[in-house]
Amino acid sequence: MTQTLTTPPQAVRPRRNNLSTSLTPLALDVAAPLVCYYVLHGAFGVGEVAALTASAVIPAVRVAWGVVRDRTLNGLAGLTLAVNAAGVALSFVTGDGRMMIAKDSGLSGVLSLVIMLSAFTRQPVMTAGMRPFITRGNAAREAAWDRLAERSPRFRRAVRNFSGIWGGVLLAECVARLVGAFTLPVSTMVWLSNVMLIAAIMLGLVLAGAFASGPIMAMVRAEAAR
């Protein structure tokens, strides 16, 4: 009875490690640049371009370290580094900090278009991340997924919808951020761009759950039960 009710130390450690692993990129890519910008620009009076450049270094270093550590340069990492470098260069050439805000729209815009276009192919980009979430490594569900992918047009349409919805939501967020970058003060967009991204993710979760992943999960469970 004691063993059943008491959580062993070994079971707790992996959860903490997983949580830390998940939150570290978020802190380095969102929280750290935000704090860096406001400390440098607000507290020490550093110019907008210089403060934005310094804040962009943090996520760029994280990506670069991942490349060095894994000894591989995937397309997303290369695109992230290229967009950051282009944003810094344009900001210094033009002297306009808005270019540093706009560069993020360029990155998310390219990704959203890739995701949307993949919805019209046999292997939509977002499927690779959704399938493990739906099947949970269960052999019956894995087999059910394969059968549905081969025989059910409704299932294949829902799979395409999942990538299409996410691509569309991210593209809308990209356009909104780009408009904000050139119409609102830079100091406002530094935090508002993150709010836009979070709002887009929440909207994507709701829409994709209602029109794609929810129906997909129901179909997989029903097929596996047979």
Q: What is the β-strand count? A: 0
Write down the overall mean pLDDT.
Answer: 81
Strand content: under 5%
> What is the string of helix and strand elements?
HHHHHHHHH
Low-pLDDT runs: 1-19
Number of helices: 9
The radius of gyration computed from the alpha-carbon positions, rounded to a whole number of angstroms, is: 21 Å
Q: Biggest β-sheet: count, sense, barrel?
A: none
- Our count of domains comes out at 2
Q: What is the CA-CA span between the terminal residues?
A: 37 Å
Structural classification = mainly alpha
Helix content: over 70%
Shape call: elongated
What is the structure about, briefly put?
87% of the residues lie in helices and 0% in strands.
Describe the protein in words:
- This protein is mostly helical and 226 residues long.
- The chain folds into two domains: 1-96, no CATH class; 98-226, no CATH class.
- It has nine helices and no strands.
Describe the secondary-structure layout.
Blueprint: H1 2-5, H2 9-43, H3 48-70, H4 75-94, H5 98-118, H6 127-135, H7 139-151, H8 153-183, H9 186-225
